[in-house]
Amino acid sequence: MMGTLGPTILLVEDSVDDAFIMKRALQKGGIENPLQIVTDGQQALDYLTGKGSYADRESYPLPCIMFLDLKLPYVHGFEVLDRIRQRTDLNSLVVVVLTGSSEKKDCNRAYALGARSYLVKPPTAQLLRDIFNSLSS
User: Fold this and answer.
1) List of residues 6+ apart from 98 with CB closer than 8 A
2) Is domain 9-136 given the CATH code 3.40.50.2300 in the classification?
């Protein structure tokens, strides 16, 4: 565990409104872990691999969990998930897909690519708390 508030959460979300809703849901769920936000798929990959401005692991520690939107600029969420699962150093990263799509084919593809959970926006505080509780058990 890092710091007194626990390990970092990475939110990959290009919508300012959806990022705000997610921050509120985490707060209401009593989840006080540090939150890092990136706004596109390429930034997510750079963050996770420590490239460029994300090389400083003090400022940008590896997250314990990543909430990943699917519809992202530059690199789509499915491609981000696929690239993560190709890297052995990121295999243990818990990825929760957070999307507006309730289509079964998207859900199935996310799980096939290694997502731990699939949430349709907006998530509730209780749902987020349940996910965090499942990580500690």
Assistant:
1) 11, 13, 22, 67, 68, 69, 119, 121, 123
2) yes
